[in-house]
Design goal:
Belongs to the glycosyltransferase 15 family. GO terms for molecular function: alpha-1,2-mannosyltransferase activity. It is built from 15 helices and twelve strands. The chain has two domains: about 120 residues, Spore Coat Polysaccharide Biosynthesis Protein SpsA, Chain A; about 150 residues, Spore Coat Polysaccharide Biosynthesis Protein SpsA, Chain A. By secondary structure, the protein is α/β, with parallel strands linked by helices. Helix content is about 40%, strand content about 10%. Helix 4 links the parallel strand 2 and strand 3. The protein is globular.
Length: about 375
């Protein structure tokens, strides 16, 4: 017969065991299911902005125990443009980002929306993140179609493009979003205090653990590159050439024009960095060159008369106003935004314990522009 003392001890032991299991399944889930270290591709600063990433090399290697990287973090944040209806999709993206990267670095998040975020949205997101989070309202004048656009012409062009097999060809809200991402997100008061950013979209996948601080004095980082729909940018390059002719001093020496053009700038090959993934230096967009460039293109009206996306305009801006060695391909970050994936290969795949299919890799697609990027070096 069990004594009272033995019964109490057994009950306590059972309680502790159950508590440990529950605690493990929630708090340490990332340690079990996340992926081990991927060494940094960066070789160090090249001409350096004043903010230093500052994570010492000895902390790049994840030991499976220490979840916090010592050292000075970069002045950086995740920037997320989302609607209340994107809650499930962005929750998935953020959960993966926390498991794969931010569980170690605890960078803050800035969420932006053209309408106020709901209490439910803020509650669920706050519950997911390991760093600080702020929710911002986009100023009306930054989001909606500007006054100089001829709406009658813009509407006719939307209706025409809406009949073509082009995503969002007839959508005005999509055009507002593209223009905002191109020229305004970095002006938001909540973003102003940061130097670097990592853009996160709803419903994306991060396949591999990232155990080094990605912010290291590059101006622009990408994972996937491809050609833009020709019908959406019919007059864009003409505007770019006009701007270059009027402002040759703003174009960076040793730029990446050869990524954009196969004939030294006469025509545009439509290659761009897919901007649903961006890691970048906000001072690139805030600088004199890009600011003048965006204002020049904005008054051409192509965001509304055609369907200029933030991806080609950002790509052209990064290629022209940065040195080519300041643009970085994150070959070791596994990423998917439907329908395309970038999956690390070889040692990076094994080292990262990535869960993507290595055969599902847009890098090897004939339409990938990665080969043009590789030829820059």
């Amino acid at each position: 017969m069990m004594t009272r003392t033995r019964y109490v001890v057994l009950v306590l032991a059972t309680f502790v065991s159950i508590h440990f299991i529950l605690s493990f399944s929630h708090e340490d889930y990332g340690r079990v299911t996340s992926f081990s270290n991927i060494a940094s591709q960066f070789k160090g600063a090249t001409g350096g902005p004043p903010y230093k990433a500052g994570i010492p090399a000895q902390y790049y290697q994840h030991d499976g125990v220490n979840e916090t990287a010592p050292g000075e973090r970069a002045n950086a944040a995740f920037v997320v443009l989302a609607r209340n209806g994107d809650l499930n999709g962005i929750s998935s993206s953020v959960r993966q980002m926390e498991d794969r990267f931010n569980r170690k670095f605890h960078y803050p998040y800035v969420f932006l929306n053209e309408v106020p975020f709901s209490d439910e949205f803020k509650r669920r997101i706050t519950n997911l993140v390991s760093g600080e989070v702020e929710f911002g309202l986009i100023p009306r004048e930054h989001w909606f179609q500007p006054s100089w656009i001829d709406e009658e012409k813009a509407k006719a062009d939307r209706e025409k493009m809406g009949k073509l097999p082009i995503p969002y060809g007839g959508s005005l809200p999509y055009r507002n979003m593209c223009r905002y991402n191109t020229g305004f997100f970095y002006r938001h008061e909540l973003v102003q205090k940061y130097r670097y950013y990592w853009r996160i979209d709803p419903d994306v996948n991060f396949y591999c653990n990232i155990d080094y601080d990605v912010y290291n004095n590059k101006t622009y980082g990408f994972t996937i590159s491809l050609p833009e729909y020709r019908e959406t940018i019919t007059t864009l390059w003409a505007g770019v050439k006009e701007f270059i002719k009027e402002n040759p001093e703003l174009v960076s020496p040793d730029n990446a024009m050869d990524f954009l053009s196969d004939d030294h700038g006469e025509t545009y090959n439509r290659c761009h960095f897919w901007s649903n993934f961006e890691i970048g230096d906000l001072d690139l967009w805030r600088g004199e060159a890009y600011s003048k460039f965006f204002d020049f293109l904005d008054h051409k009206g192509g965001f509304y008369y055609e369907r200029w996306g933030d991806a080609p305009v950002h790509s052209i801006g990064a290629a022209l106003f940065s040195r080519k060695d300041q643009i970085h391909f994150f070959s070791d970050i596994g990423y998917k935004h439907n329908p395309f994936s970038h999956c690390p290969t070889g040692e990076a795949y094994t080292r990262g314990k990535c869960w993507c299919d290595p055969n599902d890799n847009f890098d090897t697609n004939p339409y990938s522009c990665l080969k043009r990027y590789d030829k820059l070096f």
